[in-house]
Amino acid sequence: MSGDLCQEMLNVLCPMHIVFNDKGEMTSCGPTALKIFPGGLIGRGFLDVFHIKRPRKISTLDALMGQTGVRLNLQFRDMPDSQLQGVVMPGPVAGDMVVNLSFGISIVDAVSDYNLTAADFAATDLTVEMLYLVEAKSAAMEASRRLNERLQVARVEAEELALTDTLTGLKNRRALDQELSALLHQGTPFALMHIDLDFFKAVNDTLGHAAGDYVLQRVAAIMNHETRKVDVVARVGGDEFVILIKGTENHAHIERIAGRIIRKLQNPMHFENEVCQISGSIGTVVAGDYIEPTADLLFADADAALYAAKHAGRGCHLFFSPAMRDMPQTA
Q1: What is the tens place of the pLDDT at every residue in 22-63?
Q2: What are phi and psi of 15, to 5 degrees?
Q3: Integer CA distances (angstroms), 228 to 171, 222, 233, 325, in order
């Protein structure tokens, strides 16, 4: 068999092989061996490049050539510092020795470190099967990661949707209850405004529900504009809204907010060449006015203040006072 044919066979069957002569000089090597050591191997001494870690006491060429058929643990003396395994056998040419190298259990790291592919290994090498498994695992993990990300986004969106009024984009009653419970637990100052639209039924009855929906969306925009992001604006019924104003119990400040909302609500709203005219009545309770405020008590007293505002002529704002509890809640 010619030397060229033998080299071609070694390149295919043992792409990580190295051939060295009786002087220990490397005379040829497979394509993968060249790839993992781009600094060049040909012409260099095998033992100058590789350190034999096991079996021990192999530091001479004679000792190495006496280890035919024995598994060797090797390491590059210089960078790269990859751990290798190998076996040495006499070559087809007298005086030559062939060392077939492999990465062993460090193959996964080596594939990444040297950008190796299945083409860098013999077709029958179990490493090829391992690479397929690693690639399949990586693809599966990436697909799982993307799926988990989508599920996380979907979960957040579903939770947000469950806490949102779909027509106006405001918080719904469930979200309001959560926010109110947190405020009461923390003991932070806040005020609760209960707002009911005046004359909204007339808009629905005369101009239709499309006009009513438009008005509710405009009302939501007004309330968002006149409050801060930290505050909570919620739609709790058909034309009923609640605002939690956080961090303040100053009546004058709260009165200014209510006044701005009422003035904006009284502005005519134009829908398809029709004019929608409404106003808003507001009743407010301040948490600091109670020794032990509860959600039920705050809502009940805010309702009482709201209906007192309606009895006062609509389009106005009143703070709760205990006398309001005895007033009829009809308007």
Answers
A1: 888 888 888 888 877 766 788 888 888 888 888 877 778 888
A2: -65, -10
A3: 14, 12, 10, 30
